[in-house]
Amino acid sequence: MKNRYLFLLAVALPVILLDQATKLLVVRKLEYHESITVIGNFFDIIHARNPGAAFSFLSNSSFRLPFLITVSLVASIAVIAIYRKLMPGQKLTALSLSLILGGAVGNLIDRIRLGEVIDFLNVHWYQHYWPAFNVADSALCIGVGLLAVDMIREERRKKKQS
After folding, report:
1. Domain coordinates in residue numbering, the chain
2. Annotated catalytic sites, by residue?
3. pLDDT tens figures, 77-97
4. pLDDT band at 161, cuts 50/70/90?
5. How far is CA 119 from each of CA 22, 32, 58, 84, rounded to the nearest angstrom?
6. pLDDT tens digits, residue range 98-140?
7. 58 backbone dihedrals φ, ψ, rounded to 5°
8. How far apart are CA 140 and CA 151, in angstroms?
9. How many Å apart are CA 85 and CA 126, to the nearest integer?
10. What one-character-per-residue DSSP string does the chain give?
11. 12-64 pLDDT, tens per residue?
12. Start-to-end CA span in the chain (Å)
């Protein structure tokens, strides 16, 4: 394996392992829908499941599982293909893609194994709840956010050069 892929594995693999380990811990320690308050009126650990995509999108669709598995596989392959073409100095892009891959694979494992994704991080302000999420979702969001920042920085750099 080439050195360029060591960074990809060094980021994505711990994300996948942490994601799966935390989900396993939640399933073993909490009954379905049971929760533990960590910070009152703000943060709970909950055993929740999401058969759909982000924010339960497609959760009632009959074709959701094959569709979501296919999208996750295609996205993972696309991330690896894009990663292959990175230049040595594109460290933030490499980090972003590695986080995205780790998150995509973490949730893909759940979809293949369980037909749904285990969520357990529950942020809320009193009775105003954000949808529950997990480590894989967090890695995906951070990766996409960093990628957006990197793209904006690159665009500004190009404008300054012209």
Report:
1. 4-161
2. 119, 137
3. 999 999 999 998 999 999 999
4. confident
5. 10, 11, 16, 31
6. 999 999 999 999 999 999 999 999 999 999 999 999 999 999 9
7. 70, 10
8. 16
9. 46
10. --THHHHHHHHHHHHHHHHHHHHHHHHHHS-TT-EEEEETTTEEEEEEEESSSGGGTTTT-TTHHHHHHHHHHHHHHHHHHHHHT--TT-HHHHHHHHHHHHHHHHHHHHHHHHSSEEEEEEEEETTEEPPPB-HHHHHHHHHHHHHHHHHHHHHHHHHHH-
11. 999 999 999 999 999 999 999 999 999 999 999 999 999 877 766 666 666 67
12. 38
Which amino acid is it at 76? S
Scanning the structure block, which residue is given the tokens 């954000």?
130
Residue with tokens 């982000």: 54
> What is the rounded CA–CA span in Å between residue 100 and residue 33?
28
The C-alpha atoms of residue 150 and residue 147 are separated, in whole angstroms, by: 5
